[in-house]
Amino acid sequence: MSHMSGGQAVVKTLIELGARRGFGVPGESFLAVLDAFCDAADFTFTGCRNEGGAAFMAEAWAKLTGEVGLCFVTRGPGATNASIGVHTAMQASTPMILFVGQVGLEHQGREAFQELDYRQVFGPIAKYATEITDVRRIADIIRRAWSMAISGRPGPVVVALPEDILTQIADIAIPQQKINTPLGGAMPQDVLQLFEKMQGAQRPVIMVGGGGWTDLDRSTLQKCVSEANIPVITAFRYHDLFDNTDPLYLGEAGVGMTANTKRILREADVVLAVNLRFGEMTTDAFSLFGPERSGQWIAQTHRSGDEFHKYVSPDLAMICSPSAVLQSLRDRLACSNMQVDTTWVAAARAGFETTQQAKLQPSPVDMGQVTATVQELLPDDAIVTNGAGNFAIWPNKFMQFSAKQRLLAPQSGAMGYGLPAAIAAKLEYPNRCVVCFAGDGDFQMNCQELGTALQSDARPIVLIINNGAYGTIRMHQEKHYPVRVSGTDIKNPDFVILAKAYGCFAERVEKTTEFRAAFQRALSSPTGAVLDLQVAIEAITPNSTINELRASSSA
Questions:
Q1: Per CATH, the architecture of 188-355 is what?
Q2: I need a labelling partner for 89 at 20 to 30 A (CA). Which of 2, 7, 229, 407 fits?
Q3: Which neighbouring-strand residues pair with 92?
């Protein structure tokens, strides 16, 4: 037991739990925590420019490392700014703790300056929200929050820190033991039933997704499917769970699901969904795997029993970690005669590869050719990030991620995620190539975080797909209200000048033929890079122009 302030207890508890990095924007409501950071030699606090960017960084860093992401923000406006990152962490099942400064206990309930009830504010979008009201219970509550963040379905937890609790001095005991992630094992009778179904299946498919995958989970997946010749489909923006260049990879079940992917999922006789939450994306807007499925047998595994029967009713539900079920299944399949229709698998893979071939774009800079060039030149351990918008189709639909490459993208569809995620990745892996795809509207949601990149010397490469519009909304306008454009045009600043002001190498790319050399210069730049790609609004989607959308809406 040591004599310390509440702020010191917060930091010491986190360090004992294994925390080594946090993100945030400083605020007067948690000055005692900021002060404690000065004495935490093994902990790095990264100051950001906006709480939303900080929360995105914490979420992306946690997704990349498998550790708990930590974010520190001030009360009121700071907390509401950060809520976008909490929602993103929840939808992606990412372990994260948001620490929010709070008004002192003596002032609560009077609508004090910037006062909010954080249990009510974050209750619907976080896994758990609580407040520390006794300085001697700081360690207990933070450890409980940590456990909640990593247990079952991982997710965000919010802890409110009243200012007077942080400044109080008391004798406080800080436990030194770590909290390990609880892992569920696969029940032998369930594995036997799954094995029997898989062994007799002609068109089996393994779907993978969700948060909390470890290196062991990924390697076990690769070995299991390779030995049994079972193809894989990844969930929305979880491409990097399996080597996309492997002939057994058949694509992604996400927004704009291709006809080939829909066909595969309808024709599959056995579907094993590993760590996957069946939702709108993975079911093609709830049109797949419904009660009317004929003869299709589905097994679903997840760390949490709460994720079964939300829409899809699996024939077998298993509460376990990915590697537990995959290793047990692999052991049985290794000595069995599989019935997989290899012709079906090869045709499905060929269908996927066909979708990777983008048609020529009616644009000064053709993003199909740009994406192919990026794919060619990226190192085999590169990290790619993106936010949300039509531009994200290029990295999400036309790139194939190899075994060591990673994708950090928001399952919540949050704009502004890509740049903060890229900075977080560069902080963790300064020697790896990190490339962010950002639309012009998307980039401006958090472009000020280039200041964080400058200050922290975490310099990614940013590709701005600049078409002067909020592309996704413009696409829907042209489909449903053709010619009647409202609110979707954007007048942009000079992104090259802006990026140079933050110390980045920057170029404007006006023709497709200019991109390769510009990207090679970006790859060799020690200050990171921003490339402003001039893309025509006419090239609104890879497969449809604005005129084609208008014609189809009036037909």
A1: 3-Layer(aba) Sandwich (3.40)
A2: 7
A3: none
